[in-house]
Amino acid sequence: MQESAAEPPAVSPALAAPFTLAGLTVVRHGQSTANAAFADAERTGARQVPLDGRDADVPLSRLGVAQADALGRWLAGLRPGERPQLVICSPYSRARRTWERMAAASGSNSGGLPPVLLDQRLRDREMGVFELHPPAAVAARAPDEAVRRARLGEWFYRPPGGESLADVALRVRDLLHHVDRAAAGRRVLLVAHDAIAVAVRHVAAGIGAPAPDDLPPVPNASVTRWRGDGHHLSLAEWGATGHLGECGS
Length: 249
Description:
Blueprint: E1 23-28, H1 33-44, H2 62-76, E2 86-89, H3 93-106, E3 116-118, H4 135-141, H5 143-152, H6 165-182, E4 187-192, H7 194-205, E5 223-228, E6 233-240
Parallel strand pairs: 1-4, 2-3, 2-4
Antiparallel strand pairs: 1-5, 5-6
């Protein structure tokens, strides 16, 4: 009797994306005043109005400044073969300020740092009409959108005038491939946002990588690292916060 062909797996493994970088690190900015306000709103459920101003201009909180300084000490403690050879930063104020504090706090032990480049593709996820809206404010202003967001999940939900995380991954993929061509074999540090770290993880996973069902947490001022072997990037550490000590929350 002729044997039937084996059934293909329901989900094929991803085809790893080619990268020649020696290493890639994503640092999330220190706590911002909006992060603090959102956490308070989630804890109390009291805030049903958006924050004032533009997302791009949100500053670091006092805790966020301390976290950025702690990141600088982490940077100073890296061995010569671990230090970044290229630094690219989100243009948003909280990310730029994080890098400025990192660079200053690293001192002479950092062995010299490359000049930082700003790139719009590392900006935070754009929330459109819900910019700086805590979830309770979205539910109060547009309950149908809150329901749609819950139904679709964060990866696919695109607020009116804004981006889904899948959209963010497209611009991050574009940036990473540009960086890989321009900085082959180098160690690269990105100073950015939680959405960027999640997007990098998806892009590095390769072609056919499934959309994440649950988004992994990316704490403020955390360090996420990928190792490069000249061909691919492999995740070595996700959302590490051990360097923060008492300012980790």
